[in-house]
Please model this.
Amino acid sequence: MAFLSHLFLPREENNFRAKILHHDFLTYYLFFAVFFTFFFKISPFSNILGFATDITAEKLYQLTNQERLKYGLSALNYNEKLSQAAYKKAQDMFAKNYWAHYGPNGVTPWNFILSVGYQYEYAGENLAKNFLFSDGVVSAWMNSPTHRDNILRKEYTDVGFAIVSGVLNGEETTLVVQMFAKPLEKTISLNQPKEKIPVLSPSPYIEKKETYPQSTVLAKEVGQNKLNLTKISLDANLIFLIFLLLALGMDFYFAKKLGVVRLTGKNIAHFIFIFFLLISLFLIPKGIIL
Amino acid sequence: MSDFLLHIKKEIKKHLFDYLLLISAGIFFLIGLNIFRGERLIEFILLLAFTSFYIIWGVYHHIIEDTLHLKIVLEYVLIGFTLLFLLKMIVFP
Model:
């Protein structure tokens, strides 16, 4: 107990400043922060290019269908060809350095769908960039009327996803491409059985990874079999910021109670700074949609 | 507890301009993050700018208060840089 109060409360033994706020402790925090920053980059748990998000095609597929079911619509079938088209689209954006539905040379999303041999009757595309979590992507799409319309269009029967990381405009970027379509009747009768198609577990398009060394697909293997570093680091940040806020609050409160006059930084200023950083933790994981 | 709150109130009232400056910087930081969502480099620049502002604010505030000491500057630098490195992990995953 005495040890804990030495750590957290201002007393004579700790020079009337909680030990966890002393310079030696603050230096340890800095060392840990620097260590984890570099560990995170070079860790074997991270993906090949050293940057990782927690977005998986499986989760996106699940969340998309959840939203459709909420509105009484049928679940979409995972379509490998649409995932290939989505992957090609993402690759095209990295290769030609653009972030749009239509390429600079006039290439449309539909070109990619047709190029993988999928004849469509209806088709649609949703894009997202630099999100950290799958639920953030789907919730951003659902908050945008046009993207929501795409997800909730009753005509669509198939969906495909690609989550690709690479360098766009000189910046490490994670792109999410979601492609919807309904095949032409002819295609249905030729390629698909008449009976209800079972809901397939999505397997992100990773076969061509070696063909495109400039980028990497964050496949479900990365998200599931390895430690989820993105979530861990976000949680660690949250916990550490709250810990600092509490430590500063307690130190400030008890120092005032004891009537101690000290030569330290302003706890109110530290508090304000940490408070804004805490709020920023909820904004940074959100990316942009198109 | 009321004494404690009274003390905070007095402290803020005494340095109203300084605290308003810091809060305004924080609000601009959050607005900037919201505007440049998904632009990782700009997000990091905003984070760096806010952290630098906080350290400079600390130095400025203690100069005005005539309580500037190397120990105090170090405290702002250590807290600022620790949080900068921690949040960098989220900005550049």
